[in-house]
Amino acid sequence: MPIIKKEQTDETCGHLWLGGQMMRKFFITFVLIILAYIIVWLGTVIRNNIREYNYIGQADRQERTLTLDGQGKVVTRPDVAATTMGMSVEGASVAEAQAENTKVMNNLISRLKALGIEDKDIKTTNYNIYPVYDYLEEKGTVQRGYNVNQNVTVKIRDLEKVNAVLALAGEVGANNVSGLEFTVDDMEVYLAEARTDAMDKIIAKLNNLRSLLGVEFVNVVSYNEYSGATGPYPIYEKALDYGIGGAAPTIEPGSTDITLNVSIVFEIK
Asked: How far apart are CA 122 and CA 108, in angstroms?
């Protein structure tokens, strides 16, 4: 049996005692850190609750703003006209209806070009073929033939030629004319003028309210605008659908009011 010396026993006890002391210090340090975190967390929760309590029953702070509106307006004469012209024809067969339709439409387009209407201003907008039926009491629904219709949109840049263009329908046998409308080709030029007019009115209001209300306009919160154009748009529509024919009526383009509505929200103090 081995003999344990007293010195070895004392050394072992010393190591155990030191280990126990270190573990105790580590445990105490860990507990103190946890307590510190808990104290900080509780303090944060209490502070936030106090802040929320202070604002209970109080409305949110509203930004002080003032909205000013202005409408700019420019009166001008239209410089472009547009209309739709076409042909609707029936035939016993598709080929028969197509042949008649093509004859009239090709003649119409050729005459339009002879008036100085450029290719880019003549656009085919539809070409339809569909069967046509009759209802007979003895036989019920019976197919009568086929309908072929074709339309082109024509832009007329020389307004002196509007009457001549419309008269072509009767001359070539086109039986559908609709939607004559006068517009401004370069709208942005007039919108810029209308915007300047609207802004001048808003600035006048701003200066007036500054003295009347004693407020200072410090910033623009938002800016909005929308445009519109109003005016007489003469319509020459489907006058030839019923075989009226003849010369086109005299068409006057009148004037067009181009408006721009501007709304600005200002921050004031």
From this structure: 11
